[in-house]
Design a protein that fits this description.
By secondary structure, the chain is α/β, with parallel strands linked by helices. The protein has a single domain, classed as Class I glutamine amidotransferase (GATase) domain (Rossmann fold, 3-Layer(aba) Sandwich). Helix content is 31%, strand content 26%. It has helices spanning 10-17, 25-28, 47-58, 82-88, 92-95, 121-134, 143-153, 199-203, 242-252, 278-294; strands at 3-5, 22-24, 36-41, 65-71, 89-91, 100-105, 135-141, 158-172, 186-196, 208-214, 218-224, 229-232. Helix 4 links the parallel strand 4 and strand 5 (89-91). Helix 1 (10-17) packs across helix 3 (47-58).
C-alpha cells in the first residue's frame, strides 16, 4: 500500500521514478480505509532530502500511511525555502490538538551543543511531552534519539574525540523485542555523529532496553518494552552517497573529519560507495510501523 502525500511534494516525483507506490491525498480520500497517521518532525537542514529518504522507507509496507510534515516554529531554516515550508509543513502548535499513530523525530547537526543551548529546545520539550499522550509510538533518530533519551530518562550524551562516521557492524543484544523481527544476528548500518550515549546509562533507566550495539559505534537501537519509544542512534535512511556528501562538505570547509569507516571501496574517497544497509533499514521501519504502531494503535487515535 502507498504513502499518501501532496501531489506536488518534490519527494513524490523522485519516489515514483523509483517505482515506489505513492498516492495523492485526493485519491486516498476515496478509499474506505483508515490510514495510519504518521508525523515527521524534520530537524535536518536539507529537508527535501530527508523527506525523500524517510518516505522511501515508510512506503515499503502493506499499510496506507498519511504523512504530516512538521518543522519547528522557533527556528528559521536557512537551507530550505520558506515557500516549501509554507506549502508542505505545519508547526507543532497547528497540530497540538491532534492524535497521531506515529511520530518520527529526525536528527539535527547540533550534537555538540548542550540540549538547553539549542534555540528550539523549549519547543522540543513541549513536543516530547506531548508524545506521551498524543502519539502511539515515537521513533527518534540520531540527535532526536539523544534528545528523547535525555528528556524522558535523563540519559546524557558524551562528545567523542573523533566523529563516528561510517558503516558499522552491529550485533543484537538478545532482546526479544518485535522491533528486531527478521534481523540478522550481524547487520550493517551507517552512523554520522560527534556524540555518543552509553549502553550502561540506558540500561540503568530500568525502562529502556538496548537492542543492538556496535563494537566501534556503540549503541544503535534501544526501545521501551511497550514500543512507545524507539531510539535509533544511526541513519538507516541514508542514501548510498550521503556519507560521501557529508565528508566532502566538511573537508571543503576545512573541517578535519575522518574518512567514513568501512564505506568507500578500498577506503578510497574517490571510489563510489554502495548501499549495504538498505534491507535492514526497510525492515526496521516496517517492524516499527507494524508492531509498535499498527498492532497497538486504536482505530480512533483520539482514544489512545
Amino acid at each position: 500500500m502507498p504513502v499518501t502525500m501532496p501531489y506536488d511534494l518534490p519527494a513524490r516525483a523522485i519516489l515514483e521514478a523509483e517505482n515506489i507506490f505513492v498516492m495523492s491525498d485526493e485519491r486516498a480520500g476515496h478509499q474506505d480505509i483508515r490510514p495510519l497517521r504518521i508525523a515527521i518532525l524534520n530537524l535536518m537542514p536539507l529537508k527535501v532530502t530527508t523527506e525523500t529518504q524517510l518516505l522511501r522507507l515508510l512506503s515499503n509496507t502493506p499499510l496506507q500511511i498519511e504523512i504530516t510534515l512538521l518543522h519547528t516554529a522557533t527556528h528559521t531554516s536557512r537551507t530550505t525555502s520558506a515557500a516549501h515550508l509554507e506549502s508542505f509543513y505545519s508547526t507543532f502548535d497547528e497540530v497540538a490538538d491532534r492524535h497521531f499513530d506515529g511520530l518520527i523525530i529526525t536528527g539535527a547537526p547540533i550534537e555538540k551543543l548542550e540540549f538547553e543551548d539549542v534555540d528550539y529546545w523549549p519547543e522540543m520539550t513541549r513536543i516530547l511531552d506531548w508524545t506521551r499522550t498524543n502519539v502511539q509510538s515515537t521513533l527518534h533518530v540520531c540527535w532526536g534519539a539523544q534528545a528523547g533519551l535525555f528528556h524522558h530518562y535523563g540519559v546524557g550524551k558524551h562528545e567523542v574525540p573523533q566523529k563516528i562516521s561510517g558503516v558499522f557492524e552491529h550485533r543484537l543484544t538478545g532482546s526479544t523485542s518485535h522491533v528486531l523481527t527478521g534481523f540478522d544476528d550481524v547487520f550493517l548500518a551507517p552512523h554520522s555523529r560527534h556524540t555518543d550515549v552509553y549502553a550502561a546509562d540506558i540500561e540503568a533507566t530500568g525502562q529502556v532496553d538496548v537492542l543492538a550495539t556496535s563494537d566501534e559505534a556503540g549503541v544503535y537501537l534501544a526501545a521501551t518494552a511497550d514500543g512507545r519509544q524507539v531510539f535509533v542512534t544511526g541513519h538507516p535512511e541514508y542514501d548510498a552517497d550521503t556519507l560521501a556528501r557529508e565528508f566532502r562538505r566538511d573537508t571543503d570547509q576545512g573541517v578535519a573529519v575522518p574518512v567514513p569507516a568501512h564505506y568507500f571501496p578500498g577506503d578510497d574517497p574517490a571510489a563510489e560507495p554502495r548501499n549495504r544497509w538498505r534491507g535492514h533499514g526497510h525492515l526496521l521501519y516496517a517492524n516499527w510501523l507494524n508492531y509498535c504502531v499498527y498492532q497497538e494503535t486504536p482505530f480512533d487515535p483520539s482514544r489512545g
